[in-house]
Design a protein that fits this description.
two-stranded antiparallel ribbon, alpha+beta, about 180 residues, elongated, outer membrane lipoprotein receptor (LolB), chain A, 2 helices
Amino acid sequence: MNSHYLNFRLLLLFIITSLFLISCSTKPQLIKSLELKDIEFQSNYTLEGKFKASINDIKETGYFVIKKIGNSIELRVGKNYLLPEKKLNFLLDEKININELFYESEMNFQYQFRQQNLTLKNLLKNLLGQEQELPSDWSVKYPDDITSVNGFKLPKRIIIENSQIKLEIINKKYIE
């Protein structure tokens, strides 16, 4: 009787030890790569995030979705997910007018400032952390380090500003 009890205990110990060792082992397929991939600007992707714009005394917040397919860009801008969003289509080499991004109905006056147009290609590269030249009175800052978004290198926060506009962008999601 004692030998059966001892055999049962050894078998139980063997099973528990085996399960423990199997659960501690790692397989190469399950290990996430510590290397972050660089984003290739030429590829097709979707970039989602939030923005906060300060234009003189006016503050505007909302979300954006940029979908790049080939040479065309679809930009959707909204105040929140319950209100209708604004949908704009561009070609990569077009200039984007900052006035188009905001809801004119909420603006009580027409704000005019110099060089409000930005090349969409340069703006997108700045959003992806690939610094590009903007017109002379615009500056780009990356206050936070480059972070991992879905395994890609992407700046978390970007500040694009000139003397009258400050546009703070927070990247949330990158899908290739």
